[in-house]
Write a structure and sequence with these properties.
This protein has 15 helices and 21 strands. With 433 residues, the protein is of the alpha+beta class. It has three domains: 157 residues, FAD/NAD(P)-binding domain (3-Layer(bba) Sandwich); 104 residues, protoporphyrinogen ix oxidase, domain 3; 98 residues, Protoporphyrinogen oxidase, mitochondrial, domain 2 (Polyamine Oxidase, Chain A, domain 2). The strands form six sheets. The protein has a six-stranded mixed β-sheet, with helices on both faces. Strands 16-17-18-15-19 form a five-stranded antiparallel β-sheet. The protein has a three-stranded antiparallel β-sheet with strand order 5-9-6.
């Protein structure tokens, strides 16, 4: 234990919360600083006209072991937080890929072979490509894009599976997305073990899944949470570091990449340069409401193109939310962010009426359009991501750091746990004060 040792965590998103919990469990006295009036970062909820809305539709999968373990430790069961269902990337007509239960590879082969609208040539092109990825250990040259990696897969499978899966997982178009990261996601999500590919759709507002339980846990554990406090300065101190003049033995910087670069620029210009050089991609969520509407599944795939922006739609009424509330998700949304929000809204409503018309029981009323302009980093080949260690007893946490995964909740939680442990461990090392 690190009795009497102090750790500051800067940033109260999922990475910062995981770091704060881990550091407190390691025995450190923890103070968490968050500039916003609430915790959660890019995975939080807001209330609009009495309706609880998430600032984006985040989903988990069965392979998110670190997230599920952390929630369990905070007193939140999987059943409370998520609806678990087999991977079903189907449209409103029931067409699409469905993975049955069973051993991962067998389930994948059975799912592909049972796809009712693909030709045998379509199916075999995907199975041959997947067999090649397996033979190569789900590794490839660092410079490859997903488009190059999957060029042997037939056009229909590209359009209906590879492209929406890539933009959903990496928030980056296949022509610019890292094939190496895409393969790692496929390996862990589809082929790592029974249940790994299951979809975990949030039953609760995002703020109630991790932020609120973590805040309660930290409060009960004696940690300090300071909201509405934007940290201005980090400086070396007599026993470690100072945060706006307050002394700490170690610091975890779990803010955004740009905010973290601002804070550590005078301490490590090389780390700050890497963080500042990263580019980010937006996600737009369009919330509509149609009274009495219930979709065939809680999540449906949509055909996206130049005039139809959304790739997926969620029936929030089936997930414990407001009846008739439907959320349309537009990933890789640069084009739509550049347009007026009215144009995005109009295109989404037209898409909804065309794809979901038979299921709509009433008019589509606008609830809210939520735009996260820097939702995830652009996951491009050979991307130089900053490391976790910034300087002695100064660590970073966040889903954008160097690692095998794209921007995900699991990546944020894993990074936070690792940084919290490192901060505690650094205070045990020889020469620590």
């Amino acid at each position: 234990m690190t009795a009497g040792r102090t750790v500051a965590v800067i940033g109260g998103g999922w990475a910062g919360l995981a770091a704060a919990v881990e550091a407190r469990r390691g025995g450190a006295d923890v103070t968490l600083f968050e500039m916003a009036p609430q915790l959660g970062g890019r995975a939080r909820d807001v209330v609009v006209d009495g309706i609880a809305l998430d600032n984006g539709q985040h989903i988990a999968i069965g392979a998110y072991s670190a997230t599920l373990t952390l929630l369990r430790d905070l007193g939140i069961t999987e059943e409370q937080a998520f609806l678990r269902m087999p991977l079903r990337l189907i449209d409103a007509n029931g067409q699409g890929l469905v993975l049955p239960s069973g051993p991962p590879w067998l389930a994948f082969v059975r799912g592909v072979l049972s796809h009712s609208s693909w030709s045998w040539a379509d199916k075999l092109s995907l199975l041959r490509a997947a067999a090649g990825w397996l033979a190569g250990g789900f590794r490839c040259a660092e410079h490859l894009t997903v488009a190059v990696l999957t060029r042997s897969v037939r056009a229909r499978v590209q359009r209906e599976l590879i492209e929406p899966l890539c933009v959903a997982a990496l928030n980056t178009d296949v022509g610019a997305a890292s094939a190496r990261v895409f393969l790692r996601v496929l390996r862990d999500a589809l082929f790592s073990g029974p249940g790994a590919s299951d979809l975990l759709l949030p039953r609760l507002a995002l703020g109630r899944i991790l932020p609120a339980p973590a805040e309660r846990w930290l409060d009960q554990a004696g940690a300090i949470v300071r909201l509405r406090h934007r940290v201005q300065e980090l400086k070396p101190g007599k026993r470690g570091w100072t945060v706006d003049g307050a002394a700490f033995d170690a610091i975890v910087v779990a803010a955004t990449a740009s905010e973290s670069a601002r804070l550590v620029g005078a301490i490590s210009s090389s780390w700050a340069a890497k963080a500042s050089a990263m580019s980010f991609a937006p996600i737009v969520t369009v919330y509509l409401r149609s009274s009495g509407t219930v979709l065939p599944q809680p999540m449906l795939a949509l055909a996206a193109d130049e005039s139809h922006p959304a790739q997926f739609v969620f029936d929030r009424g089936q997930l414990g939310g407001t009846e008739g509330l439907i959320a349309f998700v537009i990933s890789g949304a640069e084009k739509w962010v550049d347009l007026e929000s009215d144009a995005t809204l109009a295109a989404t409503r037209q898409q909804a009426e065309a794809a979901l018309g038979p299921f709509l029981k009433g008019p589509l009323d606008v609830v809210k359009v939520v735009t996260e302009k820097r939702a995830t980093f652009r996951c491009t080949p050979a991307l130089a991501r900053p490391p976790m260690e910034i300087a002695d007893r100064l660590w970073a946490a966040g889903d954008y750091l160097d690692g095998p995964y794209p921007s995900t909740l699991e990546g944020a939680v894993r990074s936070g746990i690792a940084a919290g442990r490192a901060a505690c461990r650094s205070m045990h090392e020889p020469g620590s004060k």
